[in-house]
Amino acid sequence: MSEGGVRDSAMPNCMDTKGLSWYALHTRVHREKVVERRLRALGLPTFLPVTTEVHRWSDRQKVIEVPLFASYVFVQLDPGHSARRQVLGVDGIVGLVGDRGRGTPIPDTQIDAVRTLVTQRIPCSPRPFLTIGQRVRVRGGALDGVEGILLACERGDTLVVSVDVLGRSLGVSVAGYQVEALPTRTPSCESTYTSTVYSPPPKPAVVNPPRLSMRC
Length: 216
Fold this sequence. Notes:
Alpha-Beta Plaits; 2 domains; six-stranded antiparallel β-sheet; 12 strands; 17% helix
């Protein structure tokens, strides 16, 4: 597990974030912090979650700060604003993450969930992205309101907080926390099982049955 931190640009008093959406920017390798500084210099709201790692050598060790999502920075933009073209012109940015390079908006709830983990310094670690499993919401404690996918593991329950656009997830232990299930939008297994798998074909008419050629 890693101890998280966050780089979050201060909002200018005159900036109205209403109508802005969060987007993920794909950056060149090891350019996340440089890109984030350049975006802040343009007056754009940014979010760069970071964590600390201990790097060891034969004669010493050093604690360094690294991005939680390597090669990605989050920024708030107006989808139709000229700032979008300005952002793509920043050195170190490969492009917007999402549909046809235009970028896919990230729900505020997903950004808020990651922000909660890093600002509260909740131990977490990168996990493979998951799209299946029970979605839950944590009730009480430092993680109150955080939603994610609940997994069962040998060392206790793990909540997986996902950022869909990136295809990345974080795993955090929720042992001792109270969680509640969220309603699912997928059809039940029973309805799929009945209508798709075992719908019998119509029976042939009793009158004048067709002649069948049978082979053993």
